[in-house]
Amino acid sequence: MSTKTKIEKKYFSKYKKPLVEFPNLLETQLASYKWLIEHGLKEVFKEFSPINDYSEKKFMLEFTSFSLGEPKFDEYYAKANKLTYDAQLKARVKLMNKTLGGSSKEQEIFLADIPLMTDHGTFIINGVERVIVSQLARSFGVFFTDLDLKGKKLFGAKIIPARGVWIEIESDSDGVLYVRIDKKRKFSITSLLRVLGFTDESMLAAAATDEVRHILKLSIEKDPAKTSDESFIEIYKRLRDGDLATTENAKEFINSLFSSERYDLSPVGRFRFNKRFGKPMTDKDLERRTISKEDLMVIVEHIISLNNTPNSKADDIDHLGQRRVRYVGELLQQKIRVGMTQIKRNIQDRMSTIDVATALPINIINQRPLQARIKEFFTTNQLSQFMSQENVLNEIEHLRILSALGPGGLTRERAGLEVRDVHTSHYGRVCPIHTPEGPNIGLILHLSTYARVNDFGIIETPYAKVKNGVITKEIVYLNALEEEQYNIAHSGIKYTEDGKIVEDMVEARVKTEPGLIARAEVDYIDVSTNQAFSIATSMIPFLENDDANRALMGSNMQKQAMACVRPEAPLVATGMEELASRYSGRLIVAKEDGEVTYVDAKKITVENSKGKKEDYNLMSFQRTNNFSSFHQRPSVSIGDKVKKGMILADTSTTAHGQIALGQNALIAFMSWNGSNYEDAIILSERLVKESKFTSIYIEEFVCIVRDTKLGPEITTRDIPNVGEIKLKDLDEDGIVRVGAEVRENDILVGKITPKGETELTAEERLLRSIFAEKARDVKDTSLRMEHGKRGRIIGVKIFSRDQGHNLESGIIKKVVIEIAQIRNISVGDKLAGRHGNKGVISIILPEEEMPFMADGTPIDIVLTPLGVPSRMNLGQILEMHLGYAANALGYQAVVPSFCGATIQEIKGELVKAGMPESGKMKLFDGRTGEEFEQDIAVGYMYILKLHHMVEDKIHMRSIGAYSLITQQPLGGKAQGGGQRFGEMEVWALEGYGASHILREMITIKSDDIMGRSATFDSIIKGEEILPPNAPASFNVLLNYLRGLSLNVDLKKKGRTKEKLNGA
After folding, report:
1. Dihedral sign, CA of 535, 540, 541, 546?
2. CA distances from residue 884 to 11, 34, 490, 497, 667 in whole angstroms, order as listed
3. What whole-number distance in Å separates Cα of residue 510 and Cα of residue 551?
4. Where are the alpha helices (DSSP H) in 166-241?
5. Comparing C-alpha atoms, which of 968, 969, 945 is closest to residue 955?
6. Angle CA(478)–CA(445)–CA(541) in degrees, nearest 5?
7. What pLDDT is attached to residue 223?
8. Cβ pair 459, 268 in contact under 8 A
9. Relative orientation angle of helices 995-1002 and 983-992, to the nearest 10 degrees
10. Which residues contact 706 (CB under 8 A, 6 or more apart)?
11. Residues 447, 121: Cα–Cα separation, whole Å
12. Tens-digit pLDDT profile for residues 855-910
């Protein structure tokens, strides 16, 4: 599909428009941060105001108001200058001096710099874009659990607050209920009921049923405490074993545990509790965040009811109704709260020591703990991640991740299979396909396309109301627990234009179980066929024909696609490409109607009807976090009339406003000379010549100029022992010029460092005395181009103290060099389709050697046919056939998942395109011109170039560094290491009987120090190679054994060679 002209789209008979508007994909991230700024900070300051001294007689400090200033610079300046995009948080603080008759002093105090969120949901910390990933954590509130005891299920409950002690209630085999607080020793439930305000009589009177009364009587009998005071002491003993328990200190301690200052069930916990047990839902009722005696009685009644009801079930902790999403606003608020707690403690300490007469708020407040907590949150928190910026899709999906890991979440090691599994409640809320393949599988999830998160952090999904078999315009958002009460049909069922369901019996989820019901019984219908899937998964055409494991790979590999120099939208699309790109925040969109008056690579100007001009600045060849190039290309010309919302500029991974991650290529499925064995790919040279898969790779090199003990380092062109050819591209400061071509070992920044004084010769002493100048003794510490790298200088930034830049101590200057490299496709690069069909290029053939069609058109890419049947991703075959028809007939086929083209429609399109129904044709061998025996499947497929490029991975070693401990070669490209010849490779040589090669591998080519030197000498002199000695790792083994107090004697030919004390 050409980048020049936009072509028409073709929809097929099963296609249905979604029943709701497409949502803003980044809305929840942006709304969460907005909530923090507008409400969250206010909540925290309200909690910590006022602060009294320990005696409550000297001072009272109050936060009267706070303000968040404007940012000092915009996000682009912050990125360019490696700064944090933030704003100052200031608070007005009033200090009342009670000893001086209540006089007060008020000041405005700077508290901290708070990083601001950009329009596309990211933060810029030290010039780097970061994302705060949302956490999918267990919800607060009450959960009912079960325990199998001798074949009988005994139920219990856990009350999990946002802040405060955990209360666990458990049933015993004799029917008595016991309580544990914070997993300490258990005590009877009646003690806790008494502490919360019940007497034994009122407790029994409040019981709803005789069964409850009976269990409470049993519990009272078993309870050693008989009065309220005794109950306080009984609980105190369990919680503080060893402390002396008096009624007063027990009451004070236990009442403080359940006070509103120390205990917070959270709004979501209270909401879930009241909704579950049919309690009032007024604002006043939902404001109460502590546990009352009535709440506890309701929980006790429910546990007893569960124990007495056959086949009753405990709550499913993996159900999405029991989990909630914690977005950036809540996570950051929690950290600010921790910082403020430390500040409060510091203030109270200072209040007791400060001079009463001269005390000012500024003298009492130390802001450092808050600043440290905010910095720690954005830099070291597990949920604060370096943003993935491989392409536009990758950015969007990174912002929509839900992670079960992180502080207060699970760990990879502890997470079992149940938590990782796909759950029925995920439907429409969390994508069942899109998750990583490694140890994080099932722990890192992605939000489904239409899902939204409500104020309580519970994920909801939209459904259209169905009345008497007719779909209405009413859209209802349901959470996972609410959904279980209804019958919900899939959006793929047949219905007319006015919403009447056609079939009498339809497939639906009947209270979450799949079934067949009459259309009149349907309560709701899905709003779209891709409602269950994430953005990346929704971009796979013919998803319904792919195996889920391959669809998972396809979803992940689309996010790894490199931006091509000339982006091309897919011939077979899903319609999601255009919708998703708008919410990436990366396209330039017209803010109002007008006419384009100016266009270049940096700026587009649009003039509206009133003559007001609006400038839109474009970014050109900016380095992303993943070293790819981000570029905005104007898609309008001078004189074009534009409407509000129209796209003015595309990005490096969009074309005509559609996400364009790869290229359409002519594919044939056939075996060719063994070159496509094991998923290898054969590529035509045409794709290389036309720069189809060419991408731009931008790297950054930093040279730091320090102040050393012997004097400052200097950047200069005057470098000792370097020829003029090496200096040709350096300016007088020794910094390489923009536009210069550099290869490995070329100087990027010339730098010299002073060396220590050395003993001078007689001539040098004479020179020094004549010229009265210290002969400079410096060493060359220039920044040179790394091994195996090349490119063109596209940017030089100099940060220095003289220009007012903020640098770390001991650093005088920092020079940042940006180098762009044009990378064409080459053998060893990884290519993939959208269906999890991936492979490595094994050979690039000249066009004339590629198989060709009857009209002489050569094939672009040859794939192996064996990669399809066992992988069960037939979507690629359907895409290929429909792609051929779309290319021939000049349209873009739109096939969303589950409502795309049918097999019959694809056959019809192929016939229109002049191809047989089978989609197969005769091909001819480019080398001989002969026809291949069988007809071959040919068509157009969308191919992505992934960021696993051979140039980053290719590596070779002859002689290099060795490990000091084992004396074996180092491993890895960065260390110039060798390939590991491991246990299995040893078996392979043993199997072949290649004993001499094996001996070489594990001695002279590895860690036989004497042997490898002797072998080198023998090769140089042309002599016979001597037999090897004992390898150094053998000595390491002996030393390990000695460390275990085992002395080892090495015996040779029946006699002791030596007592190995120093060997």
Report:
1. negative
2. 16, 48, 31, 31, 9
3. 27
4. 189-195, 200-206, 210-222, 228-239
5. 969
6. 85
7. 86
8. no
9. 160
10. 712, 713, 810, 811, 812
11. 15
12. 999 999 999 999 999 999 999 999 999 999 999 999 999 999 999 999 999 999 99
In the DSSP assignment, the letter for residue 245 is P
- Which letter does DSSP use for residue 656 in this model? T
Arithmetic mean of pLDDT, 811-815: 94
Task: Output the six-digit token pair for 143.
Answer: 């959960």
Cβ proximity of 837 and 877 under 8 Å: no
3-class SS of residue 42: helix
Q: What is the CATH number of domain 423-538?
A: 2.30.150.10
| Other beta carbons less than 10 A from residue 149's beta carbon | 11
Task: Quote the pTM value.
Answer: 0.91
> Does 566-656 carry CATH code 3.40.50.970?
no
| Distance of alpha carbon 514 from alpha carbon 461, whole angstroms | 18
DSSP 474-527: EEEEEEHHHHTTSEEE-TTS-B-TT-BB-SSEEEEEETTEEEEEEGGG--EEES
Q: How confident is the model at residue 758 (pLDDT cuts 50, 70, 90)?
A: low
- pLDDT of 1056 above 70: no
Q: Is 1025 helix (H, G, I), strand (E, B) or coil?
A: coil
The predicted-structure confidence for 659-715, as pLDDT tens digits, reads as follows: 999 999 999 999 999 999 999 999 999 999 999 999 999 999 999 999 988 889 999
Report residue 35: phi and psi, to 5°: -60, -40
Q: For domain 665-694+827-950, say whether CATH 3.30.160.20 is its number.
A: no
- State the pairing for strand pair 663-669/936-945: antiparallel
- 240 contacts 265 by C-beta, under 8 angstroms: no
Name which CATH class applies to 955-1059. alpha beta
Output the pLDDT for position 1059.
46
- 695-823 has the same fold as 566-656: yes
What residues contact residue 651 under an 8 Å CB cut-off, 6+ apart? Answer: 392, 584, 586, 587, 630, 631, 632, 633
Question: Which is it for strands 9-11 and 513-518: parallel, antiparallel or unpaired?
Answer: unpaired
Fold of 695-823: OB fold (Dihydrolipoamide Acetyltransferase, E2P) (2.40.50)
Question: Per-domain residue ranges for the chain?
Answer: 138-322, 423-538, 566-656, 665-694+827-950, 695-823, 955-1059
In angstroms, rounded to a whole number, what is the distance separating the alpha carbons of residues 863 and 503? 42
Q: Please, what CATH class does the domain formed by 138-322 belong to?
A: alpha beta
